[in-house]
Amino acid sequence: MTRTITGVSAIALITVAGSAFAQDLIVPQGEGDFAWAALEEFAANNDFTGETLNVTGATTGDDAQRYRNLYAYFEQATGATVEYSGSESFEQDIVIAAQAGGLPDVALFPQPGLAKDLAAQGTLVPVAEGMTDFMVDNYAAGESWKQLATFPGADGNEDVFGLFFGTDVKSLVWYVPEQFEEAGYDIPETQEELMALSQQIVEDGGTPWCIGLGSGAATGWPATDWVEDMMLRTASLEDYDRWVSNDMPFNDPIVVNAIEQYGMYALTEGFADGGPEAAATTDFRDSPDGLFDFPPKCYMHKQASFIPIFFPEGVEAGTDVEFFYFPPFEANSDLGRPVLGSGGLASVTNDRPVTTAFMEFLGTPIAHELMMTQGQFLSPHVDANLDIYTSDVQRALGEILTTATSFRFDGSDLMPGEIGTNAFWTGMVDYTTGADAQSVADAIQSRWDEIK
Asked: How far apart are CA 196 and CA 192, in angstroms?
């Protein structure tokens, strides 16, 4: 039996399937410049009428509803029912389920570290053979995405254990266009130009950067993002991966150099609002406020795509404030245009034909577009229509993803907790307040040696 989802066939489907599918779709089928043909083709090849698919993730509240809105299209295309449950303690819950039974069919991991651990235990199922190169063929910087989802399984052999779906971008610098225009500053396209701009702002009597590392018990993490971005702009992807896994010692000269590159911005006299001591103690949520003072306390702020939620009331991203891509070094042009960020990994935990179909559905461009049109979702899928994004800001972020030559996850999130969310954080505060980079790196490596 084949399935279609438009016209009379769609109406019949809803009638036969019952109330599980009798919900309004967020975008009526066939309307707008969506990749409806991809959904039509998927529907024609997949019939799972009467089956139930259980999906579990960390997303709750309004964010969870966005995913349920998407899954309604899978339900209508296949006849299956998708039951999604979200939990703020997902990481603990999925481990307990793996040990005691009761695993879902599909698990949505906020980041791949835990997925890697569960793959090694035999909890996760590799993607179907036809999807092993899916991200390579369909995502910008696709080889990077495949590598991030490739782990050793229980047998020690490496496989692709999921599909990345939804991304955040960290390689951004925020600025106020009006301030740049009045001062005659241009958007830098290389690190060399960014450093020259920083020096020019000081010479003009201004302060180039607002930096804030404060975050309660997590103080220091914003500086780790700087270092990770610098690693991607001064070292190869292989070196970045070796550093994250500690196959390259944390105190290797390559890593020390990346720390010092962060220091060129944070520690140079006059570069940071209030100086390094203020940078180390200012809360990251408050640190961009100086962009909006008149005259500005700073002209630039490096932070991820989520930071607009902490801008002062009334400030509108895309109108009052914009961003540019944190650029590469001209001297290291062979490293391309790397992007640092994060993203969710959908992985199969119960090998069934309907779960294979669900993964294929998540790979369709329209699945990405249906999330893009709801906001707060970015995609590297090269066939997803960028015009679907709901704002110029989202669209510009999407363009950064689709023009990236490589992508890597936040390194500290992939390191052991004792390092990535402890020693690395505190070490960067120590460095910002006066310790030298080599001593900080030595101390972090010593901590890593202790936990091996």
From this structure: 6
Q: Which residues of 232-266 are buried (b: 16+ CB within 10 A; e: fewer)?
A: bbbbebebbbbbbebebbbbbebbbebbbbbbebb
**pLDDT of 32-71, one tens digit each?**
999 999 999 999 999 999 999 999 999 999 999 999 999 9
For 69, residues 6+ apart whose C-beta sits below 8 A from its C-beta are 25, 26, 370, 374
Residues of the chain under the 70 pLDDT cut: 1-23
Per the structure block, which two tokens stand in for 332?
Answer: 């290291």
The pLDDT score that the predictor gives to residue 110 is: 87
Helix 61-78 vs helix 36-44: angle between axes, to the nearest 10 degrees?
A: 50
Assign residue 7 a region: left if phi > 0, alpha if psi is -120 to 50, beta otherwise? left
Q: Which residues contact 437 (CB under 8 A, 6 or more apart)?
A: 256, 259, 260, 263, 431
Residues 54 and 104: beta-carbon distance below 8 Å: yes
pTM attached to this predicted model: 0.86
Domains belonging to the chain, first-starting first, are 8-169+341-408 (3.40.190.10), 172-337+415-450 (3.40.190.10)
Residue 23: its pLDDT value, please? Answer: 54
Task: State residue 129's pLDDT score.
Answer: 92
